[in-house]
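tool_call: predict_structure(chain=1)
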Amino acid sequence: MRAQFVLSEIGVGLRRNLTMTFAVIVSVALSLALFGGALLMREQVSTMKDYWYDKVNVSIFLCNKSDAASSAKCAKGAVTAQQKKEIESDLRNMKDLVETVHHETADEAYKHYKQQYSDTAIASVVTPDQMQESFRVKLKDPEKYKVVATAFAGRDGVESIQDQRSILETLFNMMRSVNYAAVALMFLMLVIALMLIINTVRVSAFSRRRETGIMRLVGATNFYIQIPFIAEAAFSGLIGGLFACVLLLGGHYFLVDHGLELAQQMPLVNFVGWDVVLAQLPLVLVIGLLMPSIAAFVALRKYLKV
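tool_result:
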C-alpha cells in the first residue's frame, strides 16, 4: 500500500511540473552527453599518443654540401663515410635505448620528398644533392629522446636532431584544449541542471505542502515524505542519462563509423572503439541517477518544512 502511494505521488508530481521536468531532462541529457564526450576525448588523446608515440622516430640529419655554406654546424663540410659509419655504430651499440636504425640516403629522401610534395612548385627545382641523409632511429622508450639527442648533438657531420613527437604534441595540445572547453561547458550545463532540479523540487514541495502537512500529522517520517520528491528527480535524471547515452552512441555511429565516416576518411587516426564508448555509459547513467537525487535531498531539507 505504501509503495502504491509513493508511486502515485511521483506520478502526480511529474504531471504537475511537466514543463520543468522536461527542462531538467534536457539539461541533464546535454550536460551528461558533454561529460561522456569529454571522457571519450581524453581516451582518444591517450589512444592516439600510445599509437603514434610507438611509431615515431628520432631523425639524425647529416650535413651535405649545401649545408656547409648555410649552417654553422656543418662548417667542416659534408659528412664523410667514416663519420657515418661511426654514428651508425654508436647508435647500434645503444641497445638499451635503440630498437631499430635505418639509414636514409639522399636519393631515398629525394624520392620521399617528390612523393609528398609533387604538387608544389618548389618540388620541380629540388635536386637529390640538396637532400640530407639521415638516420631514422626508433627508440624502445620514446621518452628517452634527450639521451640520444645529447649523445649526438654537436658531432661532426650532424646538422640537426629532430624528435617527431614535437610535431604530434601540437595536435595533442589542440585536442586537450578542445577537451578543456568541453569540460567547462559541461560544468556550466551541470550547474544549470542542478538549479532547475532545485527549482522543480521547490515548486513541487510548495504545491503539495498541504498533503505533506497531513502526512506529518499522521506520523509520517521525514524520509517517507521526501521519497516521492527524490524519486521524481531521480526519474528525470535517469531519463536524461538515457538520452545522453543515446547521443554518445549516435555520435560515435554517425561521426566515426557511418555518416561522416571519419574512420575511413582519416585512416591515420586510431579512433576509440565501441568498447570504450560502452564502458562510459554506466558511469553516465549512475551520475544521471545520483546527481538529481542528491540535489533534491539537499533542497528538501530546507523547503519541505511545513
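agent: The mean pLDDT is 79. Proceeding to next step.
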